[in-house]
Design a protein that fits this description.
52% of the residues are buried. Strands 1, 3, 4, 6, 9 and 13 form a six-stranded antiparallel β-sheet that branches. Strands 15, 17, 18, 21, 22 and 23 form a six-stranded mixed β-sheet that branches. Helix 10 (519-536) packs antiparallel against helix 11 and helix 10 (519-536) packs parallel to helix 12 (582-596). A hairpin with a 2-residue loop joins strand 21 and strand 22 (353-354). The longest helix is centred in the last third of the chain and has 23 residues, at 639-661. The protein is 31% helix and 20% strand. The termini are far apart. It is built from 20 helices and 28 strands. By secondary structure, the protein is α+β, with helices and mostly antiparallel strands.
């Protein structure tokens, strides 16, 4: 009858003898339960983790023991838990997300069986809310999840997640998750994975549906309220049925108090000790009349000094302690020397720590603004980049992109799509993101034309009497016109079906295709082309007329095809997925109305403004802010103008509050993919609010630029070629493949990314991150696409924000 006791049973005997059960002393249990105590001790010797493993008991005994433990009041932090059994208990409930995703727990002869049907057309997941939160703090270091699963096809790719409760506020349920494939290879037959709880991070994120972004948060192991199985969009495309549904079954899902069968634990990474008095400042410097703030991490001194070039202290002041900043796990103090306005070269000193030299002057940012705009030239495809324009970064032309086969485009044939910009660190060219980037850049030119004169960037078009920035936008717009099909729709992207190596354009091996056609690509082209037509009317009438005609033709196609999704093919290119097109319709309608004054477009824009709210940021997936900005700026006396301005002003108030409440004085609340772009886009919204109500932005634009230029938890400038310590090894195929050590200047890298999709713990070929705190999850290596890639839309937001700052400081 009795199975051999293992070490867990022996340990429980000892623990019960000393401490009792469920935090209650043995003497109390003896008096209250009498003979039940004997049964409990006997039961504990059989199976401490009764519901799951039968390591210590015979079949059938575990249910009785589990019941006895519950009667004894055993805390959930000690007893193992059968998730599937809990999922069918009173008080449990579940919910799916993502298209047609669903989950169902059924009773079978073998026990409970969960069937997860995921919709591969969306980010999908199924969440089980437990009848009572589990406290797993006592087994955080030695516990595990045990999960038995199989796929209908085999090879399915899913995540296993844990979520805490929303006691911190509605919706604020922090999730931590791990890829199941790291622990078991999904097959048609049952496979069992044992996942140590130590594989889950202490920091996770929760989804802010109002802001449409992930917010970083610390996971509460004492309040594990939900479990989740989920999958990223498109990763199971070869394992789906005709409707895009894939299925995974789970026959066991349990929380174990130990990790029997787990691989031997790796020795812990050496703890990097905190650096005392670590000064975080803007490496480029400050303008005389601008805000001049910095932060000190792990302060041991209470004051700072500002030294001039001769080493003389010209200002002494107190630091202001502001407590712990959770995203970096640092104690923080703030310093302010805004009162010092004399131009010159300076350093900051706190205790024995001294910064590198920086400048106070009117010209501290102009070079970086030009570099950020010039970066688009280095992204040009299909042409030679000669030394006269590129200096040491000269290169031969690659990817002529002529006579390419159409792929997943609704029809067969050949198509030429020469020119355009490489989108990011890869060699793909994407209509959607190109149009959004052009839209942002043209807004920068529209608001701040004096910062973008002709001959400023040394590009082939310099000297033609037109702004170099506008010329660069034309380069991309002209490529997009080549991506427009005869029916008016826009092909989605140009790319290969496999990822190219980290090599120069002339050395890539895989054939390229014109891939897909979508409503989002078509509408964003319509918007940016109509926008450009207004700005070009007086300087290039023929091109302006062509752009507008193409924009209206694109609108016509989108009206007939309002829900055509992005292509499924992502073997060597990004998905740029988007299931909601209402924001693209809003932006396109707004730009077309401003360009034509036609009632049809005004009516469509009105419908959009009534249904699509403003956000804190613009992204390729959420473009409605571009419509709000354009309507507020160019809508004249239309009633929608006041509406748009009010929404911009209201959102600016939210962003300024985020800065004021942040120990680092940054608007970032989370650190998702491209967190630096999120920061720049929030600063851009402040700039727009300031345009309509001078003074609204306060110091927010400056301090957000400070963040990306060094005032961050890593003390690094995230813009290449700036400051004393800047990103040197972006994930960028040209830069990895050339022979030049330094990167192109002016590129904004993605920045800290708490998801760390390329972490070596998640992929065998990944990167080993030095830090895992959300605000420090960044690695300066070309292998880190998740934290150190570049992208044209991110650089567009950098250009806009830097121009806005220059404009503010020059008042």
């Amino acid at each position: 009858m009795f199975a051999k006791k293992d070490s867990r049973c022996q340990r429980l005997d000892r623990d019960i003898a000393v401490a009792g059960v469920g935090g209650r002393p043995r003497e109390e249990l003896d008096g209250e339960f009498g003979s039940l105590w004997g049964l409990l001790v006997w039961g504990s010797r059989l199976n401490f983790a009764a519901p799951f493993g039968n390591q210590c008991c015979e079949p059938g005994e575990s249910d009785m023991i589990s019941t006895l433990l519950v009667l004894a009041g055993l805390n959930a932090s000690i007893a193992s838990q059968n998730i599937l059994e809990l999922g069918t208990s009173p008080g449990a409930w579940s919910y799916p997300y993502g298209g047609k995703t669903k989950g169902e727990i059924a009773s079978t002869k073998e026990g409970k069986l969960l069937t997860y049907s995921g919709d591969d057309n969306e980010y999908s997941g199924w969440t089980l809310h437990l009848p009572k939160s589990l406290d797993l703090t006592s087994i955080r270091s030695q516990g595990s999840l045990k999960i038995k699963m199989r796929g209908v096809v085999g090879g399915e790719d899913v995540f296993v997640g844990l979520m805490d409760d929303d006691s911190e506020g509605p919706g604020k349920k922090v999730q931590v998750r791990v890829p199941a494939k790291n622990f078991v290879q999904m097959a048609k037959d049952w496979k069992t994975a044992t996942i140590p709880l130590t594989e889950f991070d202490d920091q996770g994120s929760w989804w802010d549906d109002k802001a449409k972004q992930e917010i970083s948060g610390k996971f509460d192991w004492s309040k594990v309220a939900e479990v989740r199985i989920s999958s990223n969009m498109g990763v199971n495309k070869n394992r789906v049925d005709a409707t895009g549904i894939f299925q995974v079954q789970i026959g066991e899902w349990s929380v174990e108090d130990s990790c029997i069968g787990c691989p031997a634990a790796k020795p812990p990474k050496p703890v990097v000790p905190p650096v005392p008095n670590a000064i975080r400042w803007n490496h480029l410097g400050y303008a005389p009349l601008g805000a001049k703030r910095f932060v000190v991490a792990n302060p041991t001194d209470s004051a700072f000094e500002l030294l001039d070039a001769a080493g003389k202290a010209v200002l002494k002041a107190k630091l202001v302690p502001v407590g712990k900043w959770e995203p970096s796990d640092e104690q923080v103090a703030q310093g302010d020397f805004s009162s010092w306005q004399k131009p010159g070269t300076y350093t900051l000193v706190v205790g024995k720590t001294k910064t590198d030299a920086f400048k106070i002057g009117m010209d501290v940012y102009s070079g970086t603004l030009n570099d950020a705009a010039k970066a688009f030239y280095f992204q040009r495809a299909s042409v030679e980049i000669p030394a006269k324009h590129a200096g040491i970064w000269q290169r031969k032309g690659g990817h002529p992109d002529t006579g390419l086969s159409l792929y997943e485009a609704g029809r067969e044939g050949k198509w030429s799509a020469t020119g355009g910009w490489y989108d990011a660190g890869d060699y793909g060219k994407y209509t959607l993101n190109g149009a959004v980037s052009v839209g942002i850049l043209l807004q920068a030119y529209d608001l701040y034309p004096r910062f973008f004169p002709d001959k400023a960037l040394n590009i082939p078009e310099s000297g033609n009497g037109r702004s170099d920035l506008v010329d660069e936008c034309i380069w991309e717009l002209d490529w997009m016109t080549r991506m427009q099909d005869e029916d008016g729709g826009l092909f989605f992207k140009v790319a290969s079906l496999k990822w190219d190596g980290m090599e120069m354009p002339t050395k890539t091996k895989f054939p390229r295709f014109v891939i897909g056609k979508s409503t989002t690509a078509t509408l964003t082209f319509a918007a940016s082309a109509a926008q450009a037509s207004r700005l070009l009317t007086k300087i290039d009438a023929a091109r302006a007329k062509d752009y507008l005609a193409r924009a209206e033709k694109a609108w016509g196609w989108a009206k007939k095809n309002p829900g055509v999704r992005e292509p499924r093919e992502t073997g060597g290119s990004g998905p740029y997925e988007d299931s909601r097109m209402s924001d693209e319709f809003l932006w396109a309608a707004t730009e077309l109305w401003l360009a034509t004054s036609k009632a049809e477009y005004r009516a469509a824009a009105k419908t959009g403004f009534d249904t699509v709210g403003i956000l804190q940021t613009t992204s390729w997936q959420n473009v409605q802010n571009l419509a709000y900005y354009e309507m507020a700026l160019h809508g004249g006396k239309d009633s929608l103008v006041g509406f748009a301005k009010a929404k911009i002003d209201s959102m600016a108030t939210v962003i300024k509050k985020q800065i004021e409440e942040s120990a680092y004085r940054t608007p970032l609340q989370g650190f998702p993919w491209a967190s630096n772009d999120v920061a720049m886009q929030k600063a851009a919204l402040l700039a727009w609010a300031d345009r309509f109500k001078s003074g609204t932005a306060g110091s927010g634009i400056q301090e957000t630029v400070d963040y990306v230029l060094g005032k961050n938890a890593l003390g690094v400038s995230f813009v290449t070629g700036t400051g004393v310590k800047s990103a040197m090894n972006p994930h960028h195929r040209v830069l990895a493949g050339d022979t030049v050590a330094a990167p192109f200047p002016g590129f904004l890298v993605g920045g800290p990314n708490s998801d760390r999709q390329d972490d070596i713990k998640k992929a065998s070929w990944g990167v080993e991150y030095t830090f895992t705190e959300p605000a420090r999850c960044w690695m300066d290596t070309d292998k880190s696409y998740a934290s150190n890639e570049v992208a044209i839309n991110w650089n567009a937001s950098l250009v806009f924000t830097m121009a806005a700052l220059e404009n503010q400081l020059a008042r």
